[in-house]
C-alpha cells in the first residue's frame, strides 16, 4: 500500500466508524466489534500491519457493509 497502515491508525479508524473495543483477555490482542462484525488487531510484533492483514480486515468490513472504494481511500491515507 502507498502509506503503511499501523495498528494505532487502524484502531483510530475503527473507533471513528463506531466500533467498540471489547474487554481483553490474556491474549494481548485487541478485539473491536460493531453490529456482528468483529475485527482482531495483533498486539505483538511490529507496529505496521502487513498488507495481508489489512486486506483481511478490509474484506471483513466489506461483508459488514462498508464500501470497498471508501475503505481503499481511507486505508491509503
The separation of the N and C termini measures 10 Å
Helix content: 40-55%
The beta-strand count equals 3
Q: What structural category do the secondary elements indicate? A: alpha+beta
Which ranges are low-confidence, i.e. pLDDT below 50, for 5 or more consecutive residues? Answer: none
Gyration radius, in Å: 12 Å
Assign an overall shape: globular
Q: Reading side by side through the largest sheet, how are the strands ordered?
A: 1-2-3
Q: Provide the domain count.
A: 1
Tell me about the largest β-sheet. 3 strands, antiparallel
Mean pLDDT figure:
88
Relative strand content: 15-25%
User: In DSSP terms, counting alpha (H) and pi (I) runs of 4 or more, how many helices?
Assistant: 3
Written as H for each helix and E for each strand, in order along the chain, the element string is HEEEHH
Description of the structure:
This protein has 77 residues and is α+β, with helices and mostly antiparallel strands. It has one domain. It has a 3-stranded antiparallel sheet. Strand 1 and strand 2 form a beta hairpin. It is globular, with a radius of gyration of 12 Å.
Quick structural summary:
With 77 residues, the protein is α+β, with helices and mostly antiparallel strands. Helices cover 42% and strands 16% of the residues. It has one domain (7-20, 31-76).
Observed structural traits:
alpha+beta; 3 helices; 3 strands
Itemize the secondary structure elements and their pairings:
Blueprint: H1 7-16, E1 20-21, E2 30-34, E3 37-41, H2 51-63, H3 68-76
Antiparallel strand pairs: 1-2, 2-3
Amino acid at each position: 500500500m502507498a502509506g503503511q497502515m499501523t495498528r494505532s491508525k487502524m484502531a483510530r479508524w475503527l473507533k471513528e466508524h463506531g466500533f467498540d473495543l471489547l474487554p481483553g483477555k490474556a491474549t494481548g490482542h485487541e478485539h473491536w466489534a460493531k453490529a456482528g462484525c468483529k475485527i482482531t488487531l495483533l498486539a505483538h510484533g511490529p507496529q505496521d500491519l502487513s498488507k495481508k492483514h489489512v486486506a483481511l480486515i478490509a474484506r471483513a468490513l466489506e461483508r459488514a457493509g462498508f464500501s470497498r472504494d471508501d475503505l481503499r481511500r481511507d486505508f491509503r491515507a
